[in-house]
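G., the chain you wanted modeled:
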Amino acid sequence: MYFKDVYKYVLSLCRDEDTAQEVTQETFFKALRSIDSFRGQCRLYVWLCQIAKNTYYSHAGKAARTPIEESAAYLASGEDLEETLADKDSAFRIHRILHRLPEPYKEVFSLRVFGELPFRQIGLLFGKTESWARVTYHRAKLKIKEELS
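Predicted structure as tokens:
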């Protein structure tokens, strides 16, 4: 019931489909293993997203300690270098600005854009209303546009 939504949330964090799939599967494994510890103080979806977030951060920490050879994968892909650099440069600028945004703007923007979550679910994650999520997203977007100019 929640797999797709949790997957989208994880995808918004990591921006990699394979990693998101792996982390989501691990999240549900952990949730099933510790379902007795769920006290019902929040919605099940929020509890699952917290497990997913912690699982992703653990996974990202392990990945950061493991060297990855990206240049070989890039050369094998056969992409046009100039086109890729132009797109990656723009994306990098936006990600750098996003990284500097204060919370909750950073997470709300990421959940909406990368995770494609509806405002209602974003509001639920933060224990706020859908309107709060809309306003926060709009303000984050304005801050990003301001930094880009």
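The radius of gyration is 17 Å.

Shout if anything looks off.
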